[in-house]
Design a protein that fits this description.
Elements lengths: L1 H17 L12 H11 L2 H4 L2 H20 L8 H22 L7 H26 L11 H9 L8 H26 L3 H23 L11
Helix pairs in contact: 1-2, 1-8, 2-5, 2-6, 2-8, 5-6, 6-7, 6-8
């Protein structure tokens, strides 16, 4: 019960701190690992609402911050909100992906899942940007060429989509490893481990005693 509460608290604290503005490079974020690992380690009563509610709360705070810092830009515009909606669709996919893994899976397997989640996020969000084009990018024509531009070059005047993808992939792998390791470490307290060891030792001793006892001789049949 303790670990079921502690793991979400650790995940949320790390994620919230990581969202301090300008702390990390663009698209180098804890969010991909946070959502995937929440799907793996959060209990059923929390998994489908707590991660998304946490992201939503921090998104609202960031929007107020950037609106104050850049008053000339409308961060509450329909286009920007539509772009955020695409992100939430991708987060939901990462949660579902996380539910297909188990907390007892190896760290290598979980990191592989985190990397897959980062790839899916990249494909979903950039495909949605190309398909719905909320910022009216003239290069995002509804052709295969336009889709490839969305996945590689992106909007002119900004770093390329592939640069963003590099940061997405790196952060997805690194933070999945860190969060999964933390969850595995806190899943069982030292007291629980000692208790388990004592039980195993007691069971082994009982088994040894049972083996050492001679079997009872069968009673002679009465005449």
């Amino acid at each position: 019960m303790k670990s079921k509460i502690l793991v979400p608290v650790i995940f949320i604290a790390v994620f919230a701190l990581s969202r301090i503005p300008e702390l990390m490079p663009q698209n180098f974020s804890v969010v991909y690992a946070f959502v995937f690992c929440a799907g793996v380690f959060f209990p059923r009563t929390l998994v489908w609402w707590l991660p998304l509610a946490t992201i939503f709360a921090t998104d609202i705070g960031l929007n107020f911050y950037y609106q104050h810092k850049y008053p000339g830009e409308d961060v509450w515009s329909a286009a920007n909100l539509a772009n955020l909606a695409f992100n939430y669709a991708a987060y939901l996919v990462l949660l579902v992906l996380g539910r297909t893994f188990k907390p007892k899976d190896s760290l290598v397997k979980l990191v592989s899942g985190g990397l897959l989640g980062a790839i899916l996020f990249y494909l979903i969000t950039n495909t949605a940007s190309w398909l719905f084009n909320p910022f009216n990018n003239p290069e995002y024509t509804k052709t295969i060429a336009g889709w490839i531009i969305a996945l590689t070059k992106g909007t002119g005047g900004y770093p390329t989509t592939l640069e963003f993808f590099r940061n997405t992939l790196l952060s997805g792998g690194i933070f999945t490893a860190l969060l999964a390791a933390a969850a595995k470490y806190t899943a069982e307290s030292p007291a629980d481990k000692k208790a388990g060891q004592r039980e195993n030792e007691a069971g082994s001793e009982a088994g040894s005693e049972a083996k050492g006892k001679p079997e009872a001789e069968p009673e002679e049949a009465s005449a």
